[in-house]
Amino acid sequence: VSSASSALSERLGFIPPVCEVFKSPFIRLETENRYGFQIHPSARESLPDIIDNPVEGIVGADQPDPAAKPSDRRLNIGIVFSGGPAPGGHNVIAGVFDAMFAANENSRLFGFLLGPDGILENNYMEITREKVDAYRNLGGFTMIGTGRSKIDTPDKMALARQHCLDLNLDALVIVGGDDSNTNAAFMAQEFFNDGIQVIGVPKTIDGDIQVRDKNSELLCAMSFGFHTAARAFAHNVSGLCADCSSDVKYWHICKVMGRVASHLALEVGLQVHPNITLIGEEVADFIDEERIEKAREQGTVDYTAYGMTLRHVSRLICDGIVKRAAAGKNYGVIVMPEGLLEFINEIQVFIIKLNTIIADYNQTHDTDFHSDFPTLDDKLDHLRRMARMARENHIFTVWNTRDDDLFNVLPPFFQEGLLTERDSHGNFQFSQVETDKVIMGLVKDYLKTLAEQGVYKIGIERGWYARTMEKGGLDPKTYGRALFQNFDTDDAFLLVKKSAVSVKTLKQTLAREGVLDESKDIPKPIDKIYKASMPKFKTQNHFYGYDGRGNDPTWFDCTYTYNLGRTVFALIACGATGQMAAIKNLEKDFSDWTPLGIPIAPLMHLEERKGKLALVLEKSLVDIEAPAFRVFSAMREKWLAAEPGPDCYRRPGPIRYSGESEDSRPITLVLNELGRQ
Amino acid sequence: VSSASSALSERLGFIPPVCEVFKSPFIRLETENRYGFQIHPSARESLPDIIDNPVEGIVGADQPDPAAKPSDRRLNIGIVFSGGPAPGGHNVIAGVFDAMFAANENSRLFGFLLGPDGILENNYMEITREKVDAYRNLGGFTMIGTGRSKIDTPDKMALARQHCLDLNLDALVIVGGDDSNTNAAFMAQEFFNDGIQVIGVPKTIDGDIQVRDKNSELLCAMSFGFHTAARAFAHNVSGLCADCSSDVKYWHICKVMGRVASHLALEVGLQVHPNITLIGEEVADFIDEERIEKAREQGTVDYTAYGMTLRHVSRLICDGIVKRAAAGKNYGVIVMPEGLLEFINEIQVFIIKLNTIIADYNQTHDTDFHSDFPTLDDKLDHLRRMARMARENHIFTVWNTRDDDLFNVLPPFFQEGLLTERDSHGNFQFSQVETDKVIMGLVKDYLKTLAEQGVYKIGIERGWYARTMEKGGLDPKTYGRALFQNFDTDDAFLLVKKSAVSVKTLKQTLAREGVLDESKDIPKPIDKIYKASMPKFKTQNHFYGYDGRGNDPTWFDCTYTYNLGRTVFALIACGATGQMAAIKNLEKDFSDWTPLGIPIAPLMHLEERKGKLALVLEKSLVDIEAPAFRVFSAMREKWLAAEPGPDCYRRPGPIRYSGESEDSRPITLVLNELGRQ
What we know:
Two copies of one chain form a homodimer.
Chain A: H1 6-13, E1 26-31, H2 41-46, E2 56-61, E3 76-81, H3 89-103, E4 108-112, H4 116-120, E5 124-126, H5 129-135, H6 154-166, E6 171-176, H7 178-190, E7 197-202, E8 211-212, E9 218-220, H8 226-247, E10 251-256, H9 263-272, E11 276-277, H10 280-285, H11 289-297, H12 310-326, E12 332-337, H13 345-365, H14 369-372, H15 376-392, H16 401-408, H17 412-419, H18 435-452, E13 460-461, H19 462-471, H20 476-483, E14 493-494, H21 503-512, H22 524-533, E15 539-544, H23 546-549, H24 555-573, E16 579-584, E17 594-599, E18 604-609, E19 612-617, H25 627-640, H26 667-676
Parallel strand pairs in A: 3-4, 3-6, 6-7, 7-16, 10-12, 10-15, 11-12
Antiparallel strand pairs in A: 1-2, 2-17, 4-5, 8-9, 13-14, 16-17, 18-19
């Protein structure tokens, strides 16, 4: 048994296809004037030398451009990974290396180690062919590592510049997310007069880097790594679908990575068709028309009508669970994004309100809230008093009865978290909250209520009911009408009457219908049927994240990143800076893929970060108006499969790098493209 | 985007190869007298009609056997899944169906639904070609479902018999684990005079069904489903290896299924080479020679010297973590079996001792232990008093100081669990304990101690040290000897002296060496180096189980199960009963695979189950004398990779069903076979 598996050798040997233009003997850039951006004045002020960069197309040429520096000149290039690993990173390096080496064998590629710290520490290694060959088409960023530090102060910027000058770099390549590409733009500006070019590469499994120009023309449909991570999660979730539909006793609760955007959850939903998939953007976008109408009638505005409450989300989940149970399916799969709670307006409101309450209290009483109310119960009492006073005295306070009601349905550990002291920015640490436990805690509580109300019941298969009764010598018809809500329908699954929620109430129900003397025992077959109708709600929790982001890349990501690397080199060789390497038409057939340089500076806008306004790239969230979400939304009822018959689970199969097929690109992209045609 | 992925269509179309004998026009059984078993008298008594069954070989023939019933006669066969799903189950059905249909188109196959309950409820469906074709090579038991009920009382046995007679069954096929195959033998006996044959099929991802005859000849090397589950876990763990070696900040803690045996953990270890893999059987097998020697000197026997303590296990893990940190690697991957705690002698001893203490207390005081000591602290106080009294009065009690010491290192939630009231059998519910949390809780505590002692430190790369010092205008040599333990060695990574564990002690250390005036601040470069040497221990916990057992089968499991199905049919057609279908030589090339019937009754022995002696199949544990474990053990140090340079992680790649390759069978089997050659 070899330590290198045959799967590994084959993968290392895969040669991704390259875009047509990269087969040309020479390349040059061609300004794509048809694309434009709305430029923010602050960006113009901060990034004067790169703000007017155009989108650059890459075209082939038979002759070198006599007006430009020779593209086959000797170059020194540095490359660095920034942030969490994403499948395909090694192929960006391979693409740069192969193009660079083909142009000039004396060019050199340096990898800064363990992220931007490598630049600050002058910690690097030279990337040789041997190194490149050892990591072709492999996942992770293992070759040179990654890190999360930022080059975000004048001192650090100066240090980075010095080390790039020391290494005599012609260009620096920054492979990272939105923040790292923002950083790349600032470095491009900073290094502009030194002639050191800086090129960004859009990486993040979260899929939240997508670039459009001001006319909504799609220039970069997706960051690299997204497809692989989504497919890896989908493959695991698919295994859970097979498991739960065999064993028919568990609801598998799958949290998938994605804090700021729910792209991964949506793609997993489209890949696997789980019974319930929650999308944060939809939760945030919800509008409670009833509340708005009511407020309008009263001549007021109800700002709490926007966005779903936690209770509402849990009710939706319960609704799906109850419906499936009625069709005899007390099992299923739920997918939710890691960042779901951050999309719930009410939670954000709680955080702001509680911060205000604690600060006000401390100021008014010149004391410490947490010392005065040491236990959770003390704190809850205090809040309840505030709400009562507000109601009784008809005064406006920051904490009203509705707040108190909503707050009291939260599980104690989450209440405790929300009431804990904050960091200096008053930021609540979402990362410490177990999203799935908060949501499923509410779901479990509510299901218990629904079971007590007789609403959550397992449907009884009609044939089994009849057989069980007949075997016990009882007439199915006589008892059927007494026992079930829907006996005289065509329903394949029978629902025990709501009033029967215990042996006692079952007896009363049968007695009321005149088929049982209340002093007698319940006949055995009926007892058996009743028991089979009473659900247990058993869950298994799963988190898919690190394993998927460490996966070896799909065909899509292998090919995308290799061509990104080629694009990076083209941009460098042709003298561009402050550009992000991109491939247009990713959503289409490979033959349509078009390498581009997208100027980063014009994409920037102002956003609050850590309490200050900063120039950053906007993160792309799931567009709930786009075709992918609309397809998902239209299929939701079908995929819940709350009816007799098989479930609609889809098996995407394991990740493959060979061959382009229907599975070779994210379904989200394919649907969005189909919808536009 | 089609709802059926192309991966699915291709998989459905895969036709597993069949063993040579199944290509013959006719088959017959041939008794294999060279294999024999040690028969237990109780088995002979309980299973008189099937106890003398021999191992049956299957041989091809050009003519039907005139002495036997025609093997192409019309047959009615029932099949049922029992227990958790395992990849390949659908191919057992496909194998039976294809063979049955080829022999006689009028034969019929019935699937009992949702496990043995389907037999008891007479709940079944006819398995048609359409159904079979929809599930070929797919994971899960979705076609007919599974369940956990047992046919273990005379009433249930009678009911099962009646329903098999009603369906006019010639044979019943039970696909399940050790208990289900035991059940199959009892049903074979029960149905013997009715002429209903019963055949078992060895299924369990845990890999704990392995059959040898009395001469240790291997008849069945592995149950089906094991390979796929192990490969699925391995693939996910492999992603974590890529992740942690890129991001270099997490230890990924992976718990994998396997309660009674650690085969899955061992196979994952061999597939992926994680830094640390724990094997329960090794933990249980450990002998503390020091304690034994000490006891021998004192003329006593120390029964506690057998098996590792929880503390010992956590120390071993810490040892690996500390060693890697010293080589600059404060990250890694740990794999442990779900059932690890059950292999720890001390935990078993605690359960027995605490049961005794609670029972004694209740009897002596005619009261309730839990009412008298309501909180955990009360209980711990009581135990401490017992231990102290025993020591002071030199009396033997059930709870001594060593018990108390060991008990007090357990995390409170686990102490609480151990002190909780038991079920009526006094059984402790291991399944409610989070193995990984117990172990890693101890590891974290001990690492904290090791950090305070200056033992757990991150090695500082020599070059980086020199650069950092020089940049700060300090002489690396002058300070190197003062700061590091190993400056004057060839070590690539430098270890800060043990005495420096805080800014204060760092200062004292440097002052003692005469390179710093204690009233001055620590120079910035040294402060930076010191900080880089102080480890944070960050973990991410993972549990791999349900997703892997729901995975689509590997080539090995596809082919194994399809041939198992064919074997089942051959045994039925040739009139066998009480046999388990098996394939000999699984560990060898496919051309050597040999279908067999193994008689179940002679394999049975007596074991305590739920407080009673019962005839059961013995579960196979990991053999720590066998080559696979020995290879693992020999490679352990290498795979820990606590030295400069890359880790030794292996990438097994995703699960494939096409083509036989080095990855096509469990590494455990291959190594055990190699070791025997």
